[in-house]
What we know:
With 213 residues, the protein is α+β, with helices and mostly antiparallel strands. The protein is built from 2 helices and 13 strands; from the N terminus they run H-E-H-E-E-E-E-E-E-E-E-E-E-E-E. The strands form 2 sheets. Strands 2-5-12-7-8-10-11 form a 7-stranded antiparallel β-sheet, with no helix packed on it. Strand 7 (129-135) and strand 8 (144-150) form a beta hairpin. The longest helix has 39 residues, at 2-40.
Amino acid sequence: MKLLFLIIMAGALAFDSNAKNTRAENTLQGETSSMETSKTTKRVSQILFQSENDIAAWRRVNDSVMGGVSRSSMTNEGQYGVFSGTLSLDNNGGFASVRRLWTPTEKMPNTELGTKGKLTLKVKGDGQYYQLRFRTNRYLDGVSYASGFQTKANEVTEHSFDLNDFVPVWRGRQLRNVEALAWEDIVQIGIMITQKQEGPFKLKVESIALASI
């Protein structure tokens, strides 16, 4: 009987040891899988245009600040934010824009992008040329970083930007010896039409997204 009892106990201990080893292996495999997933997951900061609050965040800044008479607004149309108006060259004018506060890395904690990252803009255009602009402060005037994109009339297009696509400008002039831009520096984002494209314009913006790479 004692021999039988010892055999049963030995078998139980061996089973318990195997079970613990199996659980440990499964746990380790799970942690490894999670680590691999986290390495491949892209962090994204996104601007959408689907609610009144989304639209209300945008403010128009037109050439009226310099005496011009161009007009613009940002309104909602389904899933789009609609930047529209009329560009006039009267009174030495010639630009219309909307902008909003946006620090994209606030939505990407524990991510140091620096100059890495890719921004994607999805729009339905009118065939005209627009600019995407960043600012590193809350001021109305001053240096901005601009990059242009050409739209196609009544077609949805996606435009991708690296940080080095944006050049420092001030009142239409490109600047030199300006501090390099990092994603973490951005405080404002804007959309502008200029280039003497006189007349009505309408750009439907579906989304703006910055993703880590």
